[in-house]
Amino acid sequence: MKILIAGGTGLIGQALSKNLIQAGNQVVVLTRRQNRADTASIKYVYWDARTAEPLIALMQDIDAVINLAGDNIGEGYWTKAKKERIVNSRVMAGNALASAIINSDHKPEVFIQASAVGYYGNSEDQQFDESSPNGSGFLSDVARKWEASSEELDSLKIRRVIVRIGVVLDSHSGALPLMVLPFKLFVGGPIGNGRQYLSWIHLQDVVRAIEFVLRSKSMSGPVNLTAPSACTNAEFGKVISSVLHRPYWFPTPGFALKLVLGEKSTLVLDGQKVTPQKLVEQGFQFSYPDLENALRNIYSK
């Protein structure tokens, strides 16, 4: 297959490109960096992440599109301008990709649209699967608009899959290095009340799940990309403590994080328990279904 990836230079995009190439696919990555040189295996195409016209001709021989594009939600303070960038970067990229496909003579077989488990809102006692409704709050609103950005493709009967991704675990990028830092400094412990759920997934399983969805022609609509064993913040901290051989003792009060991070503190003080029901029903086998094995794999390298 020839696969076009928007957002292919991020954490998930880079790992996914590598796997897809190893499986014998051709990969084209859209990038906002001008004059980026192609490699032996990846063709890079400059794109402003908002304009459809330059992509129309590019779509002529594309079999699948994977849209991971969007401003980094965990980077910087959530000012009004930052929140607008978070939303607009996702909506404009999705709209442009959909428009390019609609106006192209050739249509891809499948369009994979990234989203996030924040779609479901926050709860300490509910469990969410793909049939659960959209929640409330900024992150839920972002996810809803992100998913809707490419919904025009549904009328073309292109198989569109929305992958709602949990907290991706990787030793160098994403949320995990920040979560682990207090433990490395010997001041790890529960954050807030410790009861907020963390729906996590190992980076390798994210990539394998996207490849699985790409191949599974019967799968469409929302698909949760989380491990089958969501845990509370307190449980997560205790496993990190065990894996890294560091104490678990120093609590971080919620009010302190709210003072420092403002609204962005919801990323660590709130959560949701999300299950990957569709992946399980379709027979997907997780390489790292439990947290301890996932973290031991990550920190054994």
What is this structure's SSE topology?
Blueprint: E1 2-6, H1 11-22, E2 26-31, E3 42-46, H2 53-56, E4 64-67, H3 80-102, E5 110-116, E6 127-128, H4 138-148, E7 159-165, E8 167-169, H5 176-184, E9 197-198, E10 200-202, H6 203-215, E11 221-225, E12 231-232, H7 233-244, H8 254-261, H9 266-269, E13 273-274, H10 277-281, H11 291-299
Parallel strand pairs: 1-2, 1-4, 2-3, 4-5, 5-7, 6-13, 7-11, 8-10
Antiparallel strand pairs: 9-12
Helix pairs in contact: 1-6, 3-4, 7-11
In short:
This protein has 301 residues and is an alpha/beta fold. It has eleven helices and 13 strands.
Question: Any descriptors?
Answer:
301 residues; seven-stranded parallel beta sheet; two-stranded parallel sheet; 13 strands; 37% helix; 18% strand
Q: Quick one: overall form? A: globular
Number of helices: 11
Category by helix and strand content? alpha/beta
Low-confidence residue ranges: none
Average of per-residue pLDDT values: 95
Strand order of the largest sheet: 3-2-1-4-5-7-11
The tally of strands reads 13
Largest sheet: 7 strands, parallel
Separation of the first and last Cα atoms:
32 Å
What gyration radius follows from the Cα positions, in whole Å?
19 Å
The secondary-structure element order is EHEEHEHEEHEEHEEHEEHHHEHH
Helix content class: 25-40%
